[in-house]
Automatic annotation (TrEMBL):
Membrane-spanning ranges: 28-48, 68-90
Keywords of this entry: Cytoplasmic vesicle, Endoplasmic reticulum, Membrane, Transmembrane, Transmembrane helix
Organism annotation: Geotrypetes seraphini
Family membership noted in the UniProt record: Belongs to the VMA21 family.
Chain coiled-coil ranges: none
Subcellular location: Endoplasmic reticulum membrane; Endoplasmic reticulum-Golgi intermediate compartment membrane; Cytoplasmic vesicle, COPII-coated vesicle membrane
Described function: Required for the assembly of the V0 complex of the vacuolar ATPase (V-ATPase) in the endoplasmic reticulum.
Name of protein: Vacuolar ATPase assembly integral membrane protein VMA21
Gene: VMA21
Lipid bilayer topology: Multi-pass membrane protein
Length: 103
């Protein structure tokens, strides 16, 4: 049996780029899960809240009119969440590109 050299031990370890990409992958997954949860909860919550409390309660609108305006609020919320996701993803991608370019 021959002695284990330093090269053999270093070959068994994952490269540094792989470790940083795993951390990057976890960060991306957390961002995606956050915006997924936001995409589900925010429009639905705003729809029912604005329908009940804002349009029917405060403005005294009919049930039919409040459905329409609450749906508009929910659609605007979806677009805001999508715009926020694109902004965060764009900035995260350009940051990773800059860090990779400096190496």
């Amino acid at each position: 049996m021959e002695p284990v050299g330093k090269e053999t031990l270093n070959a068994a370890l994952p490269p540094q780029d792989l470790r940083s990409s795993e951390g990057s992958l976890v960060s991306i997954l957390k961002t995606l899960l956050f915006f997924t949860a936001l995409m589900i909860t925010l429009p639905i919550g705003l729809y029912f809240t604005s329908k009940s409390y804002v349009f029917e309660g405060t403005f005294g609108m009919s049930n039919r009119d409040s459905y329409f305006y609450a749906a508009i609020v929910a659609v605007v919320a979806v677009h805001v969440v999508l715009a926020m996701f694109v902004y965060v993803a764009w900035n995260e991608g350009s940051r990773q590109w800059r860090e990779g370019k400096q190496d």
